[in-house]
């Protein structure tokens, strides 16, 4: 069973959280509520999230301050943040949102379909990245146990074939996602994230190919940062 991605919804107004849940329920992912910046930071201590939808106007710690804390933490700094605001203060306010680390800045009322589509892109990227990390972990085990397979190498060959097939499936999905982003003129942040994912896939494929018989097994494993 494929594990669902978690999406963090941060807003001090319960009716806004309910509306976001209604819009995003069609994605069939795990939606986590936070009614304040402090509550959001607490949730981020223990769980991994594909994307954060963050209200700007909140009492106490507002969205900008919450985002600053998120970006300062190594564990959470790469999580995409979409700012939601009920007030349009002009270009300066929007620039402040991007400066705080947001990948998008959306004014309410927003188009539910557009918001769902934007969130869906980051969920897809997150899921592909999780698959990539899984393949890298399996490959690392293969590299570390290279001298432990049985004499005829059948066990090693079987694992390599399985890894190659799994990686091919992720490569195909990532390629399709990149084409979709190109076709839809998606956000620059989403395109950049997809390109980064493809670079890591290329590195992993090279390392896996280096394990094939006759090619040696000294290829370095690609970084997963």
What does this structure look like?
There is one protein chain. With 225 residues, the protein is an alpha/beta fold. It is built from seven helices and five strands, in the order βαβαβαβαβααα. α2 (37-46) packs parallel to α3, α5 runs antiparallel to α6 and α5 (112-144) runs parallel beside α7. The longest helix has 33 residues, at 112-144. The modification 4-aspartylphosphate is found at residue 55. It holds the Pfam family Response_reg.
Please provide the count of β strands: 5
- Beta-strand portion reads 5-15%
- The separation of the N and C termini measures 26 Å
Shape: elongated
The helical percent reads: 55-70%
Q: Order of strands in the sheet with the most strands? A: 2-1-3-4-5
Largest β-sheet summary: 5 strands, parallel
Q: N-to-C SSE series? A: EHEHEHEHEHHH
Mean pLDDT over all positions: 78
As a whole number of angstroms, the C-alpha radius of gyration is 20 Å
InterPro entries: Bact_response_regulator, CheY-like_superfamily, Sig_transdc_resp-reg_receiver
Pfam family, one: Response_reg
Modified residues (4-aspartylphosphate): 55
Keywords: Coiled coil, Phosphoprotein
């Amino acid at each position: 069973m494929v594990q669902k991605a978690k999406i963090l919804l941060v807003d001090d107004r319960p009716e806004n959280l309910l509306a976001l849940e209604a819009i995003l329920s069609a994605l069939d992912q795990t939606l986590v509520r936070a009614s304040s910046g402090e509550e959001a930071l607490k949730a981020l201590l223990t769980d991994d999230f594909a994307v954060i939808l963050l209200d700007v106007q909140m009492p106490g710690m507002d969205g900008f301050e919450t985002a600053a804390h998120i970006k300062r933490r190594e564990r959470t700094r790469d999580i995409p943040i979409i700012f939601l605001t009920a007030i349009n203060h002009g270009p300066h306010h929007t620039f402040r949102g991007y400066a705080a680390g947001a990948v998008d800045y959306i004014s309410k009322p927003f188009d539910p379909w557009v918001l769902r589509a934007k969130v869906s892109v980051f969920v897809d990227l997150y899921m592909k990245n999780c698959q990539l990390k899984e393949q890298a972990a399996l490959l690392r085990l293969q590299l570390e146990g290279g001298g432990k397979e049985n004499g005829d190498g059948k066990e090693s060959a079987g694992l390599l074939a399985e890894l190659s097939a799994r990686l091919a499936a992720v490569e195909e999905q990532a390629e399709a996602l990149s084409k979709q982003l190109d076709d839809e003129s998606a956000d620059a942040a989403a395109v950049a994230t997809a390109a980064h994912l493809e670079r890591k896939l290329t590195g992993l494929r090279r390392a896996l190919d280096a394990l094939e018989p006759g090619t040696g097994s000294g290829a370095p494993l690609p970084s997963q940062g």
